[in-house]
Amino acid sequence: MASKITQWVNVTDKTGEFKRQVSSFRDWISNEPGAKYPPEKGRYHLYVSYACPWAHRTLIARKLKGLEDIISFSAVHWHLAEGGWRFPTKGEDVPGENAVPDPIEGHEDFTHLRHVYFESEPEYSARFTVPVLYDKKTKRIVSNESSEILRMIGTGVFDDLVDEKYRGLNLYPQDLQSQIEENHTWMYDLINNGVYKSGFATTAEAYERNVKSLFEALDRVEQELAKPKAGPYYFGKALTEVDIRLYVTLIRFDPVYVQHFKCNLRDIRSGYPNIHLWLRNLYWREPAFKDTTQFEHIKWHYTRSHTNINPLSITPLGPLPDVLPLDEEVPAVKTALSKV
Q1: Distance from C-alpha of 34 to C-alpha of 1, rounded to nearest angstrom
Q2: Care to name a GO molecular-function term for this sequence (predicted)?
């Protein structure tokens, strides 16, 4: 484990490689008889950060599945310091819906997310990560593994509690499960985690190796999205976990990862036309994506929390706008299209 919360690579690791922590809480909400955590309205709470792509996954799924009145949520402050994620204080002006002090009864004195962790496990000694799926009844963390929270929310576990119009959406449909898992494997390692392995690398060798692999993976996504399809999503007509897990990384790519993590071989808006169109379709045409994307949190968190990368905490103004409209392109792309 690194010696400081904001020290992302262990100082004793001479490879310079960023290695992501394995999640500690791995229980499941289940509608099986006798389940430890059954689906119930109002029982569960999500702690998230708008800045964090891993937490963003769960907010998108929550909205897509119509769970706003079933699972409550709150957002931590965008700044990550030595104490870990903290809750906004009462009266503090923090942008974003539900960026508030810990709203759970009995947590009135909780100032940081770490207090929620210690409530569940007093000897907890790893990172205090988001998202956290919390059970108000037992006062315990159910899960802090984003992929598993996404799976719980995005399938049919809560379908008996939501309006009928939301029950038909399954983000992990049976006929696509093998393809979803195959894509998750390389996308997670090379793209979702690849931007971090590039940005947090402490040696040139580690950085160059990972950034090259990242862009090779983006090339692969671009080729896949260039194929004729009957719908706007990664697999055509079916909106799946793959779209969500890719989106949360790629919506941050141009505003943050290009400059802050030195992922600058190309940007999305001028270098990947098919990814750019897919990304904007999700942002502008699916409210669950746009409404949960909070660019102030995203930009401020990375550029003002990662002082080892950006010691002066100056947040770049561009690119402008954060997301281009569907009918707009950057000048380089306009010029290229005019010549076709």
Answers
A1: 37
A2: glutathione transferase activity
